[in-house]
Amino acid sequence: MRFRIPVSLALVAVTLLATTASAGATTRSTQRRLTSIWFSTPTDGYGAVIRSTTSATSNSATCTDFIGRTTDGGHHFSDFSTIRTWNCTNVEDATTLIFDGVGDGFFYGPNLYETHNNGATWTHVATPGQIVTIAPAGRSVWMIKAMCTPKDLAGDLLCPLRMLQSLDGGRTWPVTRILPGHSYVRADSINPSALGQTLLARLGAQRAMYSIEPFIAGSIRSGRIPTWVTSDAGRSWIRHDIVCAIPAMTDMLAVTPSGTVIAACAGEASAGSQEKSVVRSTNEGLTWTTMSQCPPRLSSCRGPLIIGYLGALAAPSDSLVVESGLRSGLNVSHDGGHSWSSTYGTTWNNGDGVTSLQFFNSQRGVGMASSSNLIVDTVDGATRWTTFRAGVG
To answer: Coil, strand, or helix at residue 127?
Structure first.
């Protein structure tokens, strides 16, 4: 799924939706933060929310995870389903929300909660290992798990990866596949993410691309992301590395409706900047064309792609590509990734940013800046964006 840095629990306190209530001599403060969204249409969708309640006397905080629904494009989330309650000092056990579009939903990372009735109820699914990514293509759902031992987790060591497959929307997971190459992930990459890495991109019911961090394969300076393609649901794999044109540390993938694969590659993050390139393939990774790139020296880079960190990528058509992330604006290309312009928000230049993007067609899309509960949407192909604060109370 991605190269990750743990999200500080301090983000819970950033939320501007705070209420206080008095009970005797004890004052409790409650904050709510939207952590993930998924939409089935431009108006209808779901949101994962953390509510933290802090006691002024004990200075302890209790967190509760909820899944809510929206019918107005994210202006309000209601009908909350409680997922679990936990001590806020512990690491979140699920952060990413995704549905298959036919009633099955998954709230995961590193644990797993499922719904099979459009979010009305959720069930914790006990499974060995830690969930790294889930990628639906209709009722065909593929899951990648990290099989970390307690020693691996304590020492931030490498954990082996396995892929499970479901043909019934996640009700059962009967198929296990062996992934190709250096199928490992760093233990610290399983935590919530602020920087982007696509581990698995579905190209269809039987086809997919699987990438790993160059660090794992020992090829961090090669300018290539180790990548494999399957056309038979993971029974066999062919290596088609992403050729990034820069010394890449991570990448994100987006697939257009025509099947063109867009890859945004990123180098080492430093002081609010990260060199990036955008490449594309029309033959499932067999060959790659460089659309835009930053020279290896950061001081030589120009344009919006150098600003901020890679955290989200969408390609709703062969011509429209949108990239964003922490400390970044919404970077938009209308010529397939050759040239870029940036739409900057007023609230995410100082560390926040849009780290989730979803498009419904070539005109309508939505994104989220989670630490400030902001939703962004566009109705004109990312030329203009509307920003508003989601109601999660």
So the answer is: coil
CB 293 within 8 A of CB 242: no
Angle subtended at Cα 371 by Cα 201 and Cα 270, rounded to the nearest 5 degrees:
70
Taking the CA atoms of residue 292, residue 295, residue 299 and residue 305 in that order, the dihedral angle to the nearest 10 degrees is 20
295-335 pLDDT, tens per residue? Answer: 545 555 667 888 888 999 999 999 999 999 888 889 999 99
Contact call for residues 324 and 354 (beta carbons, < 8 A): yes
User: What are the backbone angles phi and psi of residue 215, rounded to the nearest 5°?
Assistant: -60, -40
Write b or e for each residue in 187-210: b if 16 or more Cβ atoms lie within 10 A of its Cβ, otherwise e: bebbbbbbbbbbbbbbbeeebbbb
Distance CA 294, CA 292 (A): 7
- pLDDT tens per residue across span 132-183: 999 999 999 999 999 988 888 777 788 899 999 999 999 999 999 999 988 8
CA distance 303 to 310: 14
The label of the residue with tokens 């180098």 reads 267
Cβ contact 187:153 at 8 Å: yes
Angle at 331 between CA 328 and CA 335, to 5 degrees: 165
CATH number of 195-354: 2.120.10.80
250-255/242-243 β-pairing: unpaired
Phi, psi (deg, nearest 5) at residue 170: 90, 5
Enumerate the domain spans of the chain: 93-191, 195-354
**By the 8 A CB rule, do 240 and 227 touch?**
yes
Q: Which residues pair with 39 in a beta bridge?
A: 45
Q: Quick one: how far is CA 276 from the chain centroid?
A: 18
Helical H segments across 83-147, by residue range: none
